[in-house]
Amino acid sequence: MDILYLMIICSVSLAVIFLIMFIINAKKGQFEDDESPAVRILLDDELRDEKQEVDAEEQKTKKEKNK
Fold this sequence. Notes:
This protein is mainly α. The chain has helices at 2-28, 37-66.
């Protein structure tokens, strides 16, 4: 029966520690991410595609100027 009391005290203590860590990180702004990393990956692909199109157009204009 003593081990049950010990386990209850340990689990409640651990829960309190995690709660304190969560509150500290929430106040620091750790969880204020508007876009998740998965969405950012998709947006990065779109930006890269647009950049490649712009680079291709710049190369065409350079070739035309060299002619």
